[in-house]
């Protein structure tokens, strides 16, 4: 959100903005100064993400108009001038809902920028091969048996599954390759295989989808289902 004096100028230092975010339980700062978003705030941001990430431009511009007090017809030009992304605007809406204190719009805008920078670029956990709409076909061609997990941001069941990733890997048959997809950026994959929820665990053999487990599943359930599907049980 840069390029406009109303948005660029502000009285808070970056450190003071971070202190506000920590005091308001938007972020936590550990003893190693690692800053992460709280689950409570991510849940709030998730609500606004689901509401505004894919709405038509006219609805999005109306929301921008309501927040910044400008004509909806001017919103597109204003957004372009300021370089504001939808993710930044969504973070601002979440802040407006989450914060208890009163802070100038300019400061909330800067805080929204900080939040977007803190958010992980992908919900797929580190250590898991990430595939997308361009690469999933090659991955399935290269691996006769494959388990693909669909992850999303702002998803509590996804976080629960992530915490048990080691157990899931151990529960899968040794010859089953594991990959992950970002469910918010892989519409072709999700449409092709009928994915309607996250997390979802899809089991493939020879490029064919054999089984789809919807929602959070315990590692032992994933293991027993994969053994049944692949005839290893």
Question: Which short descriptors sum up this protein?
Answer:
233 residues, alpha/beta, 2 domains, two-stranded antiparallel sheet, 15% strand, disordered N terminus, Thioredoxin family protein, Thioredoxin_domain
Give the secondary structure arrangement, pairings included.
Elements: H1 5-8, H2 14-23, E1 27-29, E2 35-37, H3 39-52, H4 57-68, H5 72-82, H6 86-98, H7 105-118, E3 129-130, H8 136-142, E4 145-151, H9 156-163, H10 165-171, E5 177-182, H11 187-192, E6 200-205, E7 208-214, H12 219-229
Protein name: Thioredoxin family protein
Pfam family, one: Thioredoxin
Domain Thioredoxin: 128-222
Helix percent reads 40-55%
Strand content: 5-15%
Shape: elongated
* Low-pLDDT ranges: 1-8
Overall tally of structural domains: 2
Q: For the residues shown, what is the average pLDDT? A: 89
Tell me the strand order in the biggest sheet.
3-5-4-6-7
Number of helices, counting only DSSP H or I runs of 4 residues or more: 12
Q: Work out the radius of gyration.
A: 21 Å
Structural class, judged by helices and strands?
alpha/beta
User: Can you write the helix and strand succession as a string?
Assistant: HHEEHHHHHEHEHHEHEEH
Oligomeric nature of the chains? single chain
Tally of DSSP β-strands: 7
The description of the largest β-sheet is:
5 strands, mixed
- Give the N-to-C terminal Cα separation: 55 Å
InterPro entries: Thioredoxin-like_sf, Thioredoxin_domain
Pfam families: Thioredoxin
Organism: Natronomonas salsuginis
Domain Thioredoxin: 128-222
